[in-house]
């Protein structure tokens, strides 16, 4: 067989050549804008040329700080298209973490949405970036303290389109994305051209997301989180119509977009779909075009799957993945011979995370080696495959997660007789709220740095809207006193607002294991019904 390196540029070339009329529709400040793949191709080649003129070379990192829209899509292809590395920066991270990852990745240029400028301005003294490109619909650059700044559209106007670099080793890095750690700074994951191309192919398989040319795909999942689950890459390759929701959308906006653009596939975290369900209650929308909603990032509650399917006739597919796994690795679809079971049983099976998509392998390691596939024995899920990272970028923490050729996911699962995995716990001490991570350890350390706090444990409690929210349990030092408000005032300057615990509970002592570690399982049990009780 020919040894042709897999390369992202060929994906856009295919769209330009075979689907020049197909569209990318973006929700921007002044309404929807439409670009054909021919236009996207031309604009991407101009952006590639502009980046070259700014001095970006093979292997250099270029950061993006942006919502889901056509310009971000152009960056997705222009940056790897010149052999550079697309570093998608999560806009929800704390300023300290944003500065850290820009420095750690060594981003030479940043592409920033105009409305997100203030966040980067806050860290400008801590970073060393050579050029800032502002993505804006306005003809004028907004006022900013950043320098030097360039206007995205002006750069494109001045640039001559260029050809992409395709003679790269397929293992050459094309993208990178940082994922939150249990504590401390985020960890970087590098994606190769090869990994992205193979992962995109997996998104097109009939038994996985079955993404195809005839789809109208709406990635609600942000392009700054695990590459919007790889959908932008695959959609362009397949000539799929893309609908990009832009900044600060609401369930109403999503419902309208889905109806108006006749979306067939939408992808996002459970919080997004819970919001949409509430909106659909109004009975105002016709979403018959939707053939599946892809839901992952956190567990999809069975009741939500039921409501979408039984009430609104919208098929709902539960999927699982991680930043480290590109991300799609597991998807919950019934097998042909599982169709005869009762509706309730079907829902029980489909509420599990599912089984492996072709191309990746798993093993589940319990305390006595690999667990039995009996649906009860628990173990840590380990994965390997061509779109799974084999280390964190320049990070000593790699050795904890990557061992003997496997990624240890930190997710504790059971596997049933049919190979469906069900996540039952996490070994990593983190909280996932609305699809984004909160470090319990960082909150605990911050609380314990308060002079009146003896010890503090922060645990995840199930929440109807955000899936999980943090609750802090605090023991006050003898002879000292502190109020909840004082503790919140103490935490506020140190963390993003959405990281703050929903409640601070004062306790006489925190339950501990025999070796003195917090018994978080017990605490979680004690607090499990917290949000049901306070409603
Ligand atoms: P991230 O790298 O931010 O995408 O987070 C990946 C982690 O999210 C996984 O290791 C799981 O802990 C969690 N996760 C992803 N998908 C699911 C799911 N369908 N159900 C439960 N947890 C999930």
From TrEMBL:
Limits of the AMP-binding enzyme C-terminal domain:
443-517
Q: What keywords tag this UniProt record? A: Fatty acid metabolism, Ligase, Lipid metabolism
| Superkingdom to which the source organism belongs | Bacteria
Gene Ontology MF, one: long-chain fatty acid-CoA ligase activity
Q: Membrane spanning segments where?
A: none
Annotated CDD domains: ttLC_FACS_AlkK_like (cd12119)
EC number(s) for this protein? 6.2.1.3
The AMP-dependent synthetase/ligase domain extends over 15-393
* NCBIfam families on file: PRK06187.1
Name the family: Belongs to the ATP-dependent AMP-binding enzyme family.
Q: What name appears for this protein in its UniProt entry?
A: Long-chain-fatty-acid--CoA ligase
What is the protein's species of origin?
Anoxybacillus thermarum
Q: What broad taxonomic lineage does this protein's source fall under?
A: Bacteria, Bacillati, Bacillota, Bacilli, Bacillales
